[in-house]
């Protein structure tokens, strides 16, 4: 290696070193340790001597798959994802299209709709728990005005999870709205104008121009929203404590509980299954939304 | 940023729009819909604020009052005198500021190396850092707890800070930004005989203002709102951060003191809303910079 390149390499590693050290000890190390831990019977009592635990092979995973509670939290987590992602994307897209069409107050709307995103999930969960109250809550008071006797939203095994999803949509759609808005602005106006001249209706333009051209942006939005929703925890912790009857207990909540019980190996295995779901989801969404992409977008760009 | 691009696209077309382009004229009902939507989005915040200054009996009133009949700051007084909210607030601020400072320093250093320098292991390093962007926090917290316990950092603020001091998101953001800076700057400095580290600190870093601002604000907000790890680390009340304290009060013995809990929510939410409203331009830029490429 010649001296200047050598100098550059030394400087680069000197700059990288603090990050790499912290990252290795507090991120990468624990990720690998968690995997190792998931193949052991580690419990809280082993905390001072973590290397002295017994390997148990796949026992933790086998036990998890058979654990009715783990099956339940997996189902809850998937339901949260399946309800939450489409709803969040639909609201975000509608608002983005609306804001994209107005000429005034654009920045004002964008900031206003984004507000919930920056707030603490714990804090907004406290507020929404109050709004969802059976008697005197905002929702049931409004329903009462039109003569409907509102249910106890968070006390029902069927309504509690959708209620948490509704709050999540409110809390999170702002991020996607900003991303979609930026995506909408990359669509050349000529394309829409040409389609209009050819007599395409508003719905046709949305279906055949906006959606295909926004596909990469939609994909990105679906992935980041999905990743967040797979890990939901705080809203359930504050609003329902995972209840009623575990109907809002999530995979993260389950892991947290097992950690609390001192079952470290079991908790690590559960967290790795969640990790696996995250990887699969990302891969699937890229496959599913990415596929048809090339032809349509290229066609539309011409 | 995106507004500017939009203006560029529409400006030359303005006359055509007036002529006919039906789809581009803004119908006034759209403004109405957007304002109503915005009202719905901010209602929970307004409700939170108004309820927090009502006496407890009025907070629980059925049907609820919209505007407070009696205005009182009792809830806030309780939080800050009877309960230990000053400590929680301070803890939250210390942790968030330390995490923010760490990320600004360490991520810009590595971001520069990845963007502009040639070194063995570069590709692998970038791949590993990027790969961890999507690892859920729940995967690492059990081994992290074992680690912090064994190095004597459980139930300390340092234990809350260290694991978040160097995050992959910041590296990604800084690398994206520094890549857009011209290589000629660095080459010219090299010809002038500046050392590699000096080039980073006195040529590159001063140009990173906008990216650093974005990173700083986003990191601060994330850290301020962070919950799972502080919940695991904090074992005594004097180490609680605001979200930890609020969450534990809301499921514990204070669970039915709505006025108090809503005032607590205001204390958690108001600082970040204020920061956001003042500095929102940088946040929107950050989303555009990392989200849309």
Automatic annotation (TrEMBL), chain B:
It is a multi-pass membrane protein. Gene3D superfamilies: MetI-like. Residues 1-22 are annotated as: Disordered. Its main location: membrane. SUPFAM superfamilies: MetI-like (SSF161098). Pfam families: BPD_transp_1. The chain crosses the membrane at residues 28-50, 88-112, 124-145, 157-178, 199-221, 258-279. One of its GO terms (biological process) is transmembrane transport. Belongs to the binding-protein-dependent transport system permease family. This is Carbohydrate ABC transporter permease. It comes from Nocardioides glacieisoli.
């Amino acid at each position: 290696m010649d001296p200047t390149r050598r100098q550059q390499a030394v400087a680069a590693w000197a700059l990288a070193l603090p990050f790499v050290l912290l990252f290795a000890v507090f991120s990468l190390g624990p990720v690998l340790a968690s995997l190792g831990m998931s193949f052991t019977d580690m419990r809280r009592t082993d905390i001072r001597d973590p290397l002295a635990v017994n390997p148990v092979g796949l026992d933790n995973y086998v036990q998890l798959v058979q654990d009715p509670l783990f099956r339940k939290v997996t189902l809850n987590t998937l339901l949260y994802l399946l309800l939450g992602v489409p709803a969040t994307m639909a609201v975000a897209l509608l608002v983005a299209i609306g804001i994209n069409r107005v000429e005034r107050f654009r920045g004002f709307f964008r900031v206003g709709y984004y507000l919930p995103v920056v707030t603490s999930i714990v804090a907004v969960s406290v507020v929404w728990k109050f709004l969802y109250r059976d008697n005197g809550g905002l929702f049931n008071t409004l329903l009462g005005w039109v003569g409907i006797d509102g249910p106890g939203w968070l006390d029902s095994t069927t309504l509690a999870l959708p209620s948490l999803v509704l709050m999540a949509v409110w809390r999170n759609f702002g991020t996607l709205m900003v991303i979609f808005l930026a995506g909408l602005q990359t669509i050349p106006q000529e394309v829409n104008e040409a389609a209009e001249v050819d007599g395409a209706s508003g719905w046709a333009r949305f279906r055949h121009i906006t959606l295909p051209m926004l596909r990469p942006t939609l994909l990105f939005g679906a992935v980041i929203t999905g990743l967040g929703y797979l890990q939901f925890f705080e809203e359930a912790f504050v609003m329902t404590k995972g209840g009623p009857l575990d109907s809002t207990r999530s995979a993260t909540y389950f892991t947290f509980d097992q950690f609390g019980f001192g079952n470290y190996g079991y908790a690590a295995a559960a967290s790795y299954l969640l990790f696996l779901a995250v990887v699969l989801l990302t891969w699937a969404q890229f496959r599913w939304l990415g596929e048809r992409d090339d032809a349509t977008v290229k066609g539309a760009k011409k | 940023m995106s507004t500017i691009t939009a203006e560029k696209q529409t400006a030359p077309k303005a006359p055509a729009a007036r002529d006919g382009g039906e789809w581009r004229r803004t119908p006034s009902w759209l403004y109405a819909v957007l304002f109503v939507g915005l009202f719905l989005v901010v209602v929970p915040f307004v409700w939170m604020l108004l309820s927090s200054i009502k006496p407890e009996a009025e907070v629980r009133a059925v049907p609820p009052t919209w505007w407070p009949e009696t205005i009182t700051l009792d809830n806030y007084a309780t939080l800050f005198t009877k309960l230990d909210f000053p400590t929680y607030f301070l803890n939250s601020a210390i942790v968030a500021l330390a995490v923010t400072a760490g990320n600004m320093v360490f991520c810009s250093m590595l971001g520069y190396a990845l963007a502009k320098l040639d070194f063995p292991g570069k590709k692998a390093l970038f791949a590993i850092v990027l790969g961890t962007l999507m690892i859920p926090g729940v995967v690492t917290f059990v081994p992290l707890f074992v680690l912090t316990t064994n190095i004597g950092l459980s139930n300390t603020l340092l234990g809350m800070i260290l694991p978040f001091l160097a995050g992959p998101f910041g590296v990604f953001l800084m690398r994206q930004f520094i890549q857009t800076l011209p290589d000629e700057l660095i080459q010219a400095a090299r010809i002038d005989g500046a050392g590699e580290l000096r080039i980073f600190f006195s040529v590159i870093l001063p140009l990173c203002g906008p990216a650093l601002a974005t990173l700083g604000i986003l990191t601060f907000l994330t850290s301020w709102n962070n919950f799972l790890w502080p919940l695991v680390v904090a074992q005594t009340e004097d180490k609680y951060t605001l979200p930890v304290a609020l969450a534990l009060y809301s499921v514990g013995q204070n669970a039915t003191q709505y006025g108090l809990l809503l005032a607590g929510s205001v204390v958690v939410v108001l600082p970040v809303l204020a920061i956001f409203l003042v500095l929102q331009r940088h946040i929107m830029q950050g989303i555009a910079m990392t989200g849309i490429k």
